[in-house]
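Run log // design_07
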C-alpha cells in the first residue's frame, strides 16, 4: 500500500488495494452501468494522485549524486486506479528525486550521535493525562526518551538518518525507568529538656532532635527540630542584666591605603643612600652585596611563590539589649576592650599554569588483550595559596589512551617454555619398605621424569627485527627506492636458539606439567634349554684331520632371545677331549630277522645290520665318507628249535649312570632279557643262568674335564678407526646414530669348576667373536638459555635517610644436558653483583627559612586604642619554604607537593615586647635522668635585658624560671597474644626419612618444626610499645612435630604355589599380606578382604610337561608255574615286575620319584597270569603296541596289535594268532582331542619394575575327549587350528606420590600494625597422586603471626568551648589539638582517649591526616550567643548511612547521610527573631536498608496506648511510617488515628465511631473513645418512668462535633432488662415491610414501557473507553 495524494482537498487517505478495484470494475462491466463522475456534489474532484514508496538509491558515484524513483498513479476515491488524464496534471507528484548513495567506506565518516536521556516521565502521565496512583510501593514505572541523530564525524553536521541506518539500526529512542516514591523527612526523638535559660524571671527550656533522613523525591518537609517550653525558676531579687558587649566578626584582610606609597618612598631613600655611600662602587663590594641578596632572596620573599603581603583586619564591638537591639556602649559594663584591629595575611588563591600537552601513551605497542594505556599531563604552581586563599587543585591528570600511528609495533607476548625432561627415575615410585631402594640401578618399567618450566618472550625475535628496521630508517642506511637487503617480514627465519628467561609472573595461562610418567624398557633375560646329550668324538675341524685330538660336544639352545642379542646369553656349547675322533661314522638303524646258518630252520644264525653314514650332528652322508671306519659286522643270533630254551630280545641300554668318568667314577649302562620258554629235557638247548640274562657295559668313558668358551661383557662403543664418518655433535634432542663404531669383549677358555685354561683346550669351532660393529649415538651438547636481565635494584634507605646496599642477580637455565661426550655445561648458572648505590635516597623534603621580622598593624590604624603602643604589641611574621632533595640540593616545588609531607606553615603570630613586658628566654631542655623512676629532672629559663631589674618580673609565681618533674618511669611488661601459628618446618633442603631412605624427591614435609605466638609489649600506662623495649624479638617459639607419613606395609611375595595341574596348563599363585596399615597420609593399602588381609595376588598360567614323570617297568620276572610240573616246566603261571615312577630327562628316565607324581591311570601292570609254553609249543614274543584308532571313534573301526613267533612249534602243533583285534570305543581306547585356552594371567612386570608396561599371558592345553589333559603333541599331530592370541600388553598404574611446589615466600603482613597481623604462604599441587601413590596433604597454606607493632595515628581532640576574648558573647574561635595516639589496631581500641596519647615524634613518619582527611583544621570560627539571643546550634554529627530503598521490591536509589542545625531560644520575646533551622546531606556508600512500622503499648496509669514509629534497627523516629488506615482523599491525620474505635475524618481529625465519644487530652489530641450514655424510652409495660443516664466523662466538652458529624445521637434501646426484644420493635418492623412493598410496586408501574413492534436488533456500537496499559517492559 502507498500514501495517496487527493487532488481536490489535498488530504491523505489509505489506499485499499488493487483487489477491491478489480472486483468493483468487474461488477460494473457486468451490470453495464459504468458511469464516470468526475466531481462530487461539493465540487471537489473524485480523482487524486497516489504514490508508492521510494525505491533504492541508484547511481554510479557514492555520495549525494544518486537518484531514486517511485510509482505515481491516478486513483478514484473508491480506491480503483484510472487513467492519468482524469487527475489534475499540475498537481502530479514527482516520481524522481536526488538522494545520498551510501557506500561501505561511508561507515568511517558517519555515525549515530546519542543524546542524553530525558527526565523519567510516569507512564500514567502519558495515558491521556490519567491521575497517578495514590499508593506507591518501591517506585512508579516511567519512560524516558532521548534524541538520536546521524552526524558527519568530521564537523558534526547533521546527515540523513538513512545513511547511518545503512550500517547500524537506529538506536532505541525510549527506555523504561523507575521514579522513586516520595521519601518523607525522618527525624530522631527529642533530646531531654535543657535547663531554663534564666536563673530568675521567665525563660525558655528547649529540646531538640536531628534529621536522620532528608526529604527526597517530593517527600514531606522536615518538621520543627526544636520545641520550646516556658519556665519560671523564681522571681528575680535584683535587676536583670539587660545589656551585653558583643564582638563582631573580623573583616576581610586588606592593605592600608598609604602603605604602598610609603614603602616605595622608603625603598627609594634607601637605594639613594646606598648609592651615595662611599666605596659602594667597588666591584668586590658590589659582588658581596649581590651574593648576600641572592642568599637572602627567599628570606625576603621576593620569589613569586611566596609573595606574602601582611595587611590588617578590624571588627566591631557593640553593646546590645537582650531583645537584640543595639544600645550605647556606655550601657554595657566596660572591661578591657578587646582588640579591634590585628595583622593578617592578605589571602591569595592558588594559581597554576596551563596544562602541558599530553605525554606519550604508556602503551606504545599493539596489545589485543589490553589495548589501552595511560597518558598524563601536568601544570606548575605559579602562586601558592596564602592565608584563606583557595587551595591548589590537582596538578597532574591521567587519562586512558591507545597508541597512535601506523608503525606501532606489536606488544611483547610471553609464553611458557620448558627444559628437556630429566632421566626417567623409578626409585621415586618405590614404597618405603621396598628393598629395591638399595639398588636403584637395575630398576626398570614405569617411572617419573621432571623438567623446569620458565617464561620467555614469545616474539622477541620479531620485535628485534622490527626495531632493527626502525634503527636503520633513522640512520638513513636504507632508501625507499632500494629493495631492502633483509628478507621480507613474512619470510623471517629465526635461528633456533634458547630464549632469555623473564619473570614467571609475565606468563599467563596454565603452567605446563613439570612431571610426567615415563618408561624404562626392562631387559629381557636370556633363557636356554637343558643340555643335550654328548655327541660322538669328532675332529675339531673335519677339513683338517691331521691330529688325533678330538672333542665330544653337547649343546643347548636359546629359548628366549635376550635384550641386546645372544651375546648376553651363557655359553651354549661344552666340550670334552677324546681320542680317535672321526667326522663320520656308521649309525645302526635296525637289525634284520635272525637267519639260521646253512639254511637250517633253527639253530645259530646271524642278523644283518641296517646302517647309515652320519656325521657328528646326525646328518646322513655318502657311505664313502665312512670308509675310514669299519662297517658293522652281522650280529650272531640264535633261532630256537622246538625243544630249546626261548629268550626274549635284549632291552635297550639304560641311561648312563655318569656323565663322565674318572679314577673313582665310571659310567655304566645295562640291558636285560628274560626266559620265555624252557627247554624240553635233554634234547633242547638249556636256558642260561640268571647272570647271563643281564649285560653291563661302560659308558661316557671320557674324562670329567669339560671345557667351554666364556665371554666377558661388551665394552663401550668406540670409534672405529677404519670408519670414515665423523661423530658430530648436535644440539637437538634426536637419539639417532651418527656413525658405526666398534665393540670388543674378552673371550677365554674355561674348564668347569677350575677356571681359565689355555685356549687350545677348547675347540676353535664354537669360539665366540671378540669384535662386533655398533652404532655410535650422536653427541649432545649442553644448551643453556642466555642470562636473564638483571633484577631491578631496590632503592631502600635506613632511618637516617642513607641508601642501603643491595644486590641484584640474574640466572640462566640448562635446557639440555650433555650426553655421549658432548660439550659440558658451564658451572656458572647464576650471577650476583652489588647494586649501584645512589648518592642520595630518592625523596623530597621541605626546607624552612628564617622567620621575618614581626610586622605590626600600622600605628595610624591602632593609635586610637588606649592600651596600644607604637613599637610593640601583637603582629604577624612570615617565612619562605623551599623544596629540597634529601641530600639538600634544590628541587622543583611540584616534587615536594607530590612526594613530600604537608607543607610547613609560612605565617605565625608574634609578639613584639613592650617596655613594661617581662622578656624571658625559651625553656631549655630537661636535664637528663640518671635512671628510670629515680630522681627528678629540671628545665630553666632566664630574664632578658631590663626585665632583670623589674620587680614584677622577679615574681616567680607569675614568671617561674625553672620547672621540675619526676623522671619518667618506664616499666614494660611482655605477654603473649593471639593463637599459636601452624607448625612450620625450618627452611632448608631435602631430608631423608627415618629409615635413611630418600623420600621421593619432595621438599621436607615432616619432622620437628616450630610454632610461633606473637609477643606484645606494654608500658606502665598500658600503652603498646615496640617489642624491643621488652627485650623480645616479637615471638615465642615452641617445638612441634609434624608426623611423617607411613605407607601401607605388605609382606614380601610368597613362593609360587605348585602348578594346579600335573599335566597340561594350570595356574600358580603367589600373594602378599598386610603387615602395617598406613597413617599420617601414607600410601593407601590395596582393597582388604574379609580377613583384613591385603588382597594382593598374582596369578600366572603354568605348563606341566605331561612326560615329566613316567612309569618305568622292569622286565618280567621268571615264571612261577602254579601246577608244578618240574619235568615239563610249563603251564599256567604268574610273572611279576617292578614298576617305578621316574623323572624323565633328555637322556631318559634318570631318578626315581614318588609314585603320586605319575599318572595312576597310565601305570603298567606289575603282575600277569599267562601260560608258559611247553616244549615243542609255539613261542611268541610280547604283544606290540596297539595301533591308533582312526577318527572318528566308532564301533565299526578297530585297532590291532601283533606279535611274531620266536620258536616254531613241533610238527602237528600250531602257533596262536599273531594279531589281536578289538573294536574302537569312544573314551575307552579311542579319543578325540581339542585345544583349551586358559584365562589371562595378571599383568606381569619385570622383577625390577614397579609399574608401567607389562604383559598378560595365557596357554593352550590339549584336552582329551574324556576331559583329561594330555601332551600337546596329540593336538599338534591333528593339525588343529590355533586361533588365539597368547600374549597381550597391559599397563600397571604407577603409584605416583603427590608432588607439591615449594612454599611461596611469606606474604606481606595482613596489617601494618596491631595485634592481629598475619603472614601467609602457599604451595600448590604440582603432580596429583595417581594409583596407590601417597595422597596430597591437606595443608596447602600456612600462617604465622607478624611481629606486633604499635598503631600510631593522628587524632583530633574535642573542640574547645567557643572563646571570645574577655567578652560575654559574639564571634569567637574554638580550637582543637592534633595529637599522636597509639592503639593495638583492634576496633575497640580506636576509641581510646587520653590513655593512648604518646609523643608526637612517634607519628612523624605518618602522613598528616585524620581518618584519611588531609585537610587539617585546628581552629574555626564560632559564635557565642549573647544572653537572650536566639541562635542556631552547631552542626550535629553526620547520621548513619541510610539506603533509600524498598526491601520487598529490591529497589535501591543510593545511600545518603545528613546532619542538621536546630534552633535554641533563650527569650520568649525573641522567638520571632529566630533563624531558620538547617540541614544538609551528602551521598555515602554501604547504607543500610531500613523499614519503618508503628508500635504501641499501653501505659500503666492510662487507657490511652502509647504509639510511636520505630525503625527496623530499634530507633524511635518521627516520619517514615506508612499510614495505617486508608486515608480519605481530602484529609490525613498526623499523628495517625490508632486508638480503638477511632478513624480519620475528611478534615484530617481523629474522631470516634458511632456510639462512642471523644475524650481529648490537655494538648487537644484524642485520648480515648468512650461509650455514649444510653437513653431508655419507657414503654407501657415499664413501671419505672425515670430516665437513667450514664456518668458524663467530660461535662465541659461542647455538644457540637467536628467536621463531618451533624451532632450527638441518642440511641433507643431495643432490648428489655430481660434480654428480649420489646414490642415496639416488632411494630416498627411490620410497618417498614408494608412501606417497602408499596414503594417497589410504584416503581414497577412507573418504569414499565409499552410494547413496540419488533425490529432487527442493532449491533451495540457503544464506544468503550480507550485504555493504555504499560506492561513494565524495560525496552519501551
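design_07 sequence
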Amino acid at each position: 500500500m502507498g500514501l495517496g495524494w487527493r487532488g481536490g482537498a489535498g488530504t491523505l487517505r489509505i489506499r485499499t488495494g488493487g483487489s477491491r478495484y478489480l472486483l468493483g470494475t468487474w461488477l460494473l462491466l457486468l451490470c453495464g452501468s459504468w458511469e464516470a463522475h468526475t466531481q462530487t456534489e461539493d465540487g471537489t474532484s473524485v480523482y487524486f494522485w497516489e504514490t508508492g514508496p521510494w525505491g533504492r538509491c541508484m547511481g554510479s558515484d557514492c555520495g549525494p549524486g544518486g537518484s531514486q524513483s517511485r510509482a505515481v498513479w491516478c486513483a478514484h476515491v473508491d480506491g480503483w486506479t484510472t487513467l492519468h488524464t482524469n487527475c489534475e496534471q499540475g498537481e502530479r507528484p514527482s516520481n524522481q528525486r536526488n538522494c545520498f548513495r551510501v557506500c561501505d567506506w561511508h561507515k568511517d565518516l558517519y555515525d549515530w550521535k546519542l543524546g542524553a536521556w530525558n527526565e523519567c516521565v510516569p507512564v500514567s502521565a502519558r495515558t491521556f493525562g490519567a491521575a497517578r496512583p495514590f499508593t506507591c510501593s518501591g517506585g512508579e514505572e516511567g519512560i524516558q526518551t532521548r534524541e538520536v541523530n546521524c552526524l558527519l564525524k568530521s564537523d558534526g553536521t547533521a546527515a540523513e538518518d538513512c545513511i547511518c541506518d545503512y550500517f547500524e539500526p537506529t538506536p532505541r529512542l525510549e527506555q523504561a525507568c523507575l521514579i522513586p516514591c516520595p521519601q518523607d523527612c525522618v527525624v530522631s526523638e527529642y533530646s531531654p529538656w535543657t535547663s531554663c535559660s534564666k536563673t530568675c524571671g521567665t525563660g525558655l527550656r528547649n529540646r531538640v532532635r536531628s534529621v536522620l533522613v532528608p526529604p527526597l523525591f517530593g517527600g514531606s518537609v522536615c518538621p520543627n527540630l526544636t520545641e520550646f517550653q516556658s519556665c519560671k525558676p523564681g522571681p528575680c531579687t535584683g535587676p536583670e542584666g539587660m545589656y551585653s558587649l558583643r564582638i563582631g566578626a573580623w573583616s576581610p584582610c586588606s592593605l592600608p591605603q598609604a602603605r604602598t606609597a610609603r614603602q616605595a618612598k622608603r625603598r627609594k631613600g634607601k637605594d639613594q643612600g646606598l648609592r651615595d655611600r662611599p666605596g659602594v662602587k667597588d666591584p668586590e663590594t658590589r659582588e658581596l652585596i649581590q651574593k648576600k641578596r641572592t642568599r637572602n632572596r627567599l628570606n625576603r620573599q621576593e620569589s613569586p611563590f611566596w609573595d606574602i603581603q601582611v595587611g590588617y583586619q578590624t571588627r566591631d564591638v557593640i553593646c546590645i539589649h537582650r531583645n537584640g537591639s543595639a544600645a550605647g556602649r556606655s550601657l554595657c559594663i566596660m572591661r578591657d576592650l578587646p582588640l579591634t584591629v590585628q595583622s593578617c595575611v592578605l589571602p591569595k588563591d592558588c594559581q597554576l599554569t596551563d596544562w602541558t600537552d599530553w605525554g606519550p601513551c604508556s602503551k606504545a605497542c599493539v596489545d589485543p588483550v589490553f589495548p589501552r594505556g595511560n597518558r598524563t599531563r601536568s601544570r606548575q604552581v605559579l602562586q601558592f595559596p596564602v592565608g584563606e586563599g583557595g587551595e591548589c587543585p590537582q596538578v597532574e591528570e591521567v587519562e586512558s589512551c591507545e597508541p597512535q600511528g601506523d608503525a606501532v609495533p606489536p606488544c611483547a607476548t610471553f609464553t611458557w617454555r620448558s627444559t628437556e625432561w630429566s632421566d626417567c627415575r623409578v626409585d621415586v615410585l618405590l614404597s618405603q619398605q621396598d628393598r629395591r631402594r638399595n639398588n636403584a640401578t637395575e630398576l626398570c618399567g614405569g617411572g617419573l621424569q621432571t623438567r623446569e618450566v620458565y617464561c620467555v618472550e614469545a616474539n622477541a625475535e620479531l620485535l628485534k627485527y622490527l626495531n632493527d628496521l626502525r634503527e636503520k630508517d633513522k640512520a638513513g642506511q636504507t632508501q625507499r627506492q632500494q629493495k631492502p637487503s633483509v628478507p621480507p617480514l613474512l619470510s623471517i627465519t629465526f635461528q633456533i636458539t634458547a630464549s632469555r628467561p623473564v619473570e614467571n609472573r609475565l606468563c599467563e595461562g596454565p603452567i605446563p606439567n613439570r612431571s610426567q610418567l615415563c618408561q624404562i624398557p626392562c631387559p629381557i633375560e636370556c633363557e636356554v634349554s637343558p643340555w643335550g646329550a654328548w655327541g660322538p668324538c669328532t675332529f675339531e675341524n673335519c677339513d683338517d684331520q691331521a691330529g688325533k685330538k678330538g672333542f665330544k660336544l653337547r649343546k643347548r639352545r636359546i629359548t628366549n632371545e635376550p635384550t641386546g642379542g645372544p651375546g648376553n646369553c651363557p655359553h651354549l656349547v661344552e666340550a670334552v677331549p677324546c681320542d680317535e675322533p672321526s667326522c663320520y661314522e656308521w649309525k645302526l638303524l635296525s637289525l634284520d630277522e635272525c637267519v639260521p646258518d646253512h639254511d637250517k630252520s633253527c639253530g645259530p644264525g646271524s642278523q644283518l645290520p641296517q646302517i647309515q653314514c652320519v656325521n657328528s650332528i646326525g646328518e646322513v652322508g655318502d657311505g664313502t665318507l665312512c670308509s675310514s671306519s669299519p662297517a658293522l659286522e652281522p650280529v650272531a643270533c640264535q633261532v630256537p628249535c622246538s625243544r630249546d630254551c626261548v629268550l626274549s630280545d635284549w632291552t635297550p641300554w639304560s641311561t648312563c649312570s655318569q656323565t663322565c668318568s674318572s679314577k673313582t667314577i665310571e659310567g655304566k649302562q645295562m640291558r636285560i632279557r628274560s626266559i620265555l620258554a624252557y627247554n624240553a629235557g635233554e634234547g633242547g638247548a638249556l636256558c642260561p643262568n640268571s647272570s647271563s640274562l643281564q649285560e653291563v657295559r661302560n659308558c661316557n668313558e671320557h674324562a670329567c674335564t669339560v671345557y667351554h668358551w666364556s665371554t666377558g661383557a661388551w665394552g663401550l662403543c668406540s670409534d672405529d678407526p677404519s670408519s670414515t664418518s665423523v661423530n658430530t655433535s648436535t644440539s637437538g634432542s634426536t637419539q639417532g646414530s651418527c656413525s658405526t663404531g666398534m665393540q670388543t669383549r674378552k673371550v677365554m677358555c674355561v674348564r668347569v669348576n677350575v677356571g681359565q685354561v689355555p685356549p687350545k683346550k677348547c675347540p676353535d669351532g664354537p669360539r665366540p667373536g671378540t669384535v662386533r660393529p655398533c652404532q655410535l649415538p650422536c653427541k649432545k651438547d649442553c644448551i643453556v638459555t642466555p642470562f636473564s636481565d638483571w633484577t631491578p635494584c631496590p632503592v631502600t634507605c635506613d632511618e637516617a635517610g642513607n641508601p642501603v646496599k643491595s644486590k641484584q642477580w640474574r640466572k640462566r637455565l640448562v635446557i639440555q644436558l650433555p650426553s655421549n661426550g658432548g660439550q659440558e655445561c658451564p658451572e656458572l648458572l647464576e650471577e650476583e653483583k652489588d647494586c649501584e648505590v645512589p648518592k642520595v635516597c630518592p625523596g623530597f623534603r621541605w626546607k624552612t627559612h628564617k622567620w621575618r621580622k614581626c610586622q605590626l598593624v600600622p600605628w595610624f590604624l591602632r593609635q586610637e586604642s588606649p592600651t596600644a603602643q607604637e613599637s610593640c604589641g601583637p603582629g604577624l611574621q612570615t617565612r619562605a619554604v623551599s623544596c629540597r632533595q634529601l641530600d639538600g640540593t634544590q628541587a622543583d616545588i611540584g616534587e615536594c607537593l607530590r612526594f613530600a609531607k604537608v607543607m610547613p606553615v609560612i605565617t605565625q603570630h608574634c609578639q613584639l615586647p613592650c617596655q613594661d613586658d617581662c622578656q624571658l628566654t625559651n625553656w631549655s631542655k630537661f636535664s637528663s635522668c640518671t635512671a628510670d623512676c629515680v630522681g627528678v629532672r629540671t628545665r630553666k629559663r632566664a630574664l632578658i635585658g631590663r626585665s632583670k631589674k623589674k620587680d614584677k618580673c622577679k615574681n616567680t609565681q607569675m614568671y617561674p624560671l625553672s620547672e621540675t618533674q619526676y623522671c619518667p618511669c618506664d616499666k614494660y611488661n611482655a605477654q603473649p597474644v593471639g593463637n599459636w601459628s601452624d607448625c612450620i618446618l625450618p627452611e632448608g633442603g631435602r631430608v631423608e626419612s627415618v629409615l635413611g631412605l630418600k623420600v621421593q624427591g619432595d621438599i621436607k614435609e615432616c619432622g620437628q618444626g616450630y610454632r610461633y605466638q606473637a609477643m606484645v609489649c606494654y608500658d606502665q600506662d598500658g600503652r603498646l610499645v615496640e617489642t624491643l623495649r621488652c627485650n623480645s624479638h616479637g615471638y615465642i617459639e615452641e617445638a612441634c612435630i609434624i608426623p611423617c607419613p607411613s605407607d601401607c606395609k605388605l609382606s614380601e611375595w610368597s613362593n609360587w604355589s605348585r602348578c594346579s595341574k600335573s599335566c597340561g596348563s594350570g595356574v600358580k599363585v603367589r600373594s602378599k599380606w598386610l603387615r602395617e596399615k598406613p597413617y599420617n597420609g601414607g600410601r593407601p593399602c590395596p582393597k582388604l578382604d574379609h580377613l583384613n588381609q591385603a588382597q594382593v595376588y598374582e596369578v600366572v598360567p603354568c605348563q606341566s610337561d605331561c612326560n615329566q614323570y613316567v612309569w618305568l617297568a622292569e622286565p618280567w620276572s621268571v615264571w612261577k608255574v602254579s601246577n608244578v610240573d618240574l619235568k615239563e616246566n610249563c603251564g599256567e603261571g604268574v610273572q611279576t615286575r617292578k614298576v617305578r615312577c621316574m623323572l624323565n630327562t633328555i637322556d631318559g628316565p634318570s631318578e626315581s620319584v614318588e609314585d603320586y607324581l605319575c599318572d595312576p591311570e597310565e601305570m603298567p601292570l606289575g603282575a600277569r597270569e599267562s601260560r608258559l609254553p611247553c616244549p615243542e609249543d609255539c613261542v611268541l614274543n610280547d604283544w606290540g603296541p596297539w595301533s591308533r584308532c582312526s577318527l572318528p571313534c566308532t564301533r565299526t573301526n578297530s585297532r590291532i596289535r601283533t606279535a611274531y613267533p620266536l620258536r616254531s612249534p613241533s610238527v602237528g602243533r600250531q602257533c596262536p594268532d599273531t594279531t589281536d583285534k578289538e573294536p574302537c570305543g569312544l573314551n575307552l581306547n579311542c579319543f578325540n582331542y581339542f585345544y583349551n585356552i586358559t584365562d589371562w594371567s595378571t599383568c606381569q612386570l619385570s622383577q625390577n619394575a614397579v609399574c608401567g608396561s607389562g604383559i598378560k599371558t595365557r596357554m593352550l592345553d590339549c584336552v582329551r575327549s574324556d576331559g583329561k589333559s594330555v601332551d600337546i603333541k596329540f593336538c599338534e599331530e591333528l593339525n588343529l587350528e590355533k586361533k588365539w592370541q597368547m600374549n597381550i600388553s597391559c599397563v600397571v598404574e604407577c603409584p605416583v606420590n603427590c608432588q607439591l611446589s615449594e612454599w611461596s615466600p611469606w606474604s606481606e603482613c595482613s596489617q601494618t600494625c596491631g595485634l592481629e597481623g598475619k603472614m601467609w604462604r602457599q604451595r600448590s599441587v604440582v603432580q596429583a597422586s595417581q594409583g596407590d601413590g601417597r595422597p596430597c596433604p591437606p595443608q596447602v597454606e600456612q600462617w604465622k603471626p607478624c611481629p606486633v607493632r604499635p598503631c600510631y595515628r593522628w587524632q583530633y581532640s574535642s573542640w574547645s568551648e567557643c572563646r571570645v576574648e574577655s567578652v560575654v558573647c559574639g564571634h569567637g574561635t574554638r580550637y582543637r589539638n592534633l595529637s599522636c595516639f597509639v592503639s593495638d589496631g583492634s576496633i575497640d581500641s580506636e576509641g581510646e582517649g587520653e590513655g593512648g596519647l604518646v609523643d608526637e615524634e612517634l607519628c612523624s613518619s605518618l602522613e598528616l591526616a585524620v581518618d584519611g582527611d588531609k585537610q587539617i583544621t585546628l581552629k574555626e570560627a564560632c559564635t557565642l550567643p549573647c544572653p537572650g539571643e536566639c541562635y542556631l546550634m552547631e552542626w550535629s554529627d553526620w547520621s548513619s548511612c541510610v539506603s533509600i530503598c524498598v526491601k520487598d521490591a529490591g529497589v535501591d536509589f543510593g545511600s545518603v547521610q545528613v546532619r542538621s542545625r536546630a534552633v535554641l531560644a533563650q527569650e520568649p520575646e525573641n522567638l520571632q527573631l529566630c533563624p531558620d533551622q538547617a540541614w544538609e546531606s551528602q551521598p555515602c556508600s554501604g547504607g543500610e536498608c531500613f523499614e519503618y512500622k508503628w508500635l504501641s503499648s499501653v501505659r500503666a496509669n492510662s487507657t490511652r496506648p502509647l504509639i510511636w514509629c520505630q525503625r527496623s534497627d530499634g530507633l524511635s523516629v518521627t516520619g517514615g511510617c506508612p499510614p495505617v488506615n486508608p486515608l480519605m482523599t481530602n484529609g490525613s491525620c498526623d499523628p495517625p488515628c490508632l486508638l480503638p474505635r477511632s478513624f480519620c475524618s475528611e478534615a484530617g481529625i481523629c474522631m470516634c465511631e458511632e456510639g462512642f465519644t471523644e475524650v481529648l487530652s490537655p494538648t487537644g489530641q484524642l485520648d480515648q473513645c468512650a461509650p455514649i450514655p444510653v437513653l431508655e424510652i419507657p414503654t407501657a409495660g415499664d413501671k419505672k418512668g425515670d430516665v437513667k443516664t450514664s456518668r458524663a466523662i467530660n461535662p465541659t466538652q461542647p455538644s457540637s462535633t467536628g467536621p463531618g458529624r451533624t451532632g450527638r445521637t441518642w440511641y433507643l434501646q431495643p432490648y428489655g432488662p430481660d434480654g428480649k426484644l420489646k414490642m415496639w420493635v416488632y411494630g416498627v418492623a411490620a410497618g417498614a415491610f408494608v412501606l417497602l412493598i408499596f414503594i417497589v410496586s410504584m416503581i414497577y408501574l412507573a418504569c414499565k414501557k409499552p410494547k413496540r413492534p419488533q425490529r432487527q436488533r442493532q449491533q451495540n456500537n457503544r464506544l468503550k473507553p480507550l485504555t493504555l496499559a504499560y506492561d513494565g517492559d524495560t525496552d519501551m
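The two ends are 28 Å apart (CA to CA).
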